[in-house]
Amino acid sequence: MINQKNVRHIINDNLIKKKNIVDKIMPVFFFLAALVSVITTIGIVLTLIIDAFRFFEAIPLSEFFSANLSPLRENPSFGILPLIVGTLMTTLIAMCVAVPVGLAAAVYLSEFASQKKRKVLKPIMEILAGIPTIVYGFFAYSFVTPLLMKVIPSLNAKNVLSAGIVMGIMIIPMIASLSEDAMQAVPNALREGAFGLGSTRLEVTRKVVIPAAISGILASVVLAVSRAIGETMIVVIAAGSSKNLSFDITESMQTMTAYIVEFTSGDAASGTTGYYSLYAVGLLLFVFTMLMNLITQLITKKIREEY
To answer: Which of 28, 147, 158, 227 sits between 20 and 30 A of 257, alpha carbons compared?
Structure first.
């Protein structure tokens, strides 16, 4: 008969062997999983750089950073400034809508709403983030623009203003949710100390909670800017495709993402200068987004409060 101690030894030995095998395999699996994202990023960057380089072989930088954009003419020109201005204008309008509304929602959820209300309101608000952007685009074109035309009769059917407003509505959940998380991370001891000194709830929020959570709030705003810069379908449907350099928000403008969509729909034959201009614009868009992410990290590291 097998001794009970021998059985225990056999079981322990098997567990040790299995544990050693798992411990050896899992780090390799995790490394390969992490490597996928790294390789994908490198592949995207190399694709943009290589094909953008082919564009810059034919078009000098001085022409690329000019205001003359007419890629489909007999003598095409590829000035990027109208696209940059259109992108920045829609982003600026979006932030003017999203920042005050998103921060106000975050303050209410964090400091004024009860736990029961927070559990109901926050998920409902975050549903906005799950709506497809093409739905936002049709909402901007068929509802917001006609509504604005009653207030601004000179408003074009496709314009930057309605696209920026709806884009701002779309990114409200991002600012509100991330800012609310940053405020919730502020220790209650700070609030209690301020209340003990006779401060009102609004004074505690304004003078204690928001300054303590400012790094997370700014990070949410910068991430929202990055999201707005890369938005596509709203500006394609609502902002139009005018390639003129203008600062009038009632007019149609084209953004960098809308330009890419327009050309990938069949206007640019493969291998032409217009085709490679897509990669040049995409590379510039990638640089903008990367700078936003770097700014977010720098802000977070520089003014982050640790408790």
So the answer is: 147
Residue type, 110: S
Rounded CA-CA distance 151/172 in Å is: 24
Domain residue spans in the chain? Answer: 4-58, 69-303
Helices (H), the chain: 4-58, 61-64, 81-107, 115-126, 133-139, 145-151, 160-184, 188-196, 201-204, 210-212, 214-229, 233-234, 256-262, 273-303
- Residue 50 Cα distances to 43, 101, 234, 303, angstroms: 10, 42, 29, 38
How far apart are the C-alpha atoms of 291 and 226, rounded to whole Å?
9
Distance CA 129, CA 174 (A): 7
**CA–CA dist 271, 258 (Å, integer):** 20
235-290 per-position pLDDT tens digit: 888 888 888 788 888 888 888 888 888 877 766 667 777 788 888 888 888 888 88
Report d(CA 13, CA 244) in Å as an integer: 75
Q: Exposure of 272 by Cβ count < 10 A (0-12 exposed, 13-18 middle, 19+ buried)?
A: middle
Task: Label residue 214 by pLDDT band (50, 70, 90).
Answer: confident
Contact 165, 100 (CB under 8 A): no
Of 178, 191, 189, which is closest to residue 102 (Cα–Cα)?
Answer: 178
**pTM summary value:** 0.82
CATH of domain 69-303: 1.10.3720.10
Cα(25)–Cα(49) distance, integer angstroms: 36
| Confidence (pLDDT) at 98 | 92
The helix/strand/coil state of 101 is helix
